# Entry
Amino acid sequence: MNMTPSQAKAFAGELFEKVKGKRGCDIVVCVPFVDISAVTKTLAGTSVKVGAQNVHFMKSGAYTGEVSANMLVDAGVKYVVIGHSERRQYFGETDETVNLRTKAALEAGLTAIVCIGETLDEREKEITAEVVSKQLKLALLGITAEQMQNVIIAYEPVWAIGTGKTATAEQANEVCAIIRSVIAKKYGKAVAKAAIIQYGGSMNASNAAELLAMPDIDGGLIGGASLKADAFAAIVDAAQ
# Structure
């Protein structure tokens, strides 16, 4: 929850100037609902795509304050973050609602960035693999192999969100490899190989290159480091 529409518009323009002409990775900015209009206009025709931070699973109805997938598509959004740890922690998101939101996003033609990850307590109890596998399986319930082309999985260890703590490159890659193995068992090796799996726990300009060099980490879901164009552009450079 950062930036007013005017601030987001200025940021989007500054970011594009720093990343234009760069190739080799997809760049998406996922902004608060009120910023979507300003940012989509600013980035129209550029290589930087726009995403939202949440979506409701119904198309319309008595859900005051919510935003549907069709609304996002009509507003020019291409991607949407689903099941972020903060949504789970503060707003009652569950594995089941994450699944419903993912289905709604895919049916509307959006690319779903589905977030999963363990808490510090779960990691210390050595049940990371079980927790992440369960979250992933429930999130993808009823999702077809064809639809997986429009699903990105973001591994975000809850203990590394906004804390400044980061999983080591080896720790992050180990869990991303587990995620890929679950996808392989469900959809086959080809789908698993093609799947984009991001790391989303305090990735920044100083650690991005090491994390992105790992074989099972295909990108980053950037938090605080995405709020400054210079820092975000440096991560883009590392991704290239």
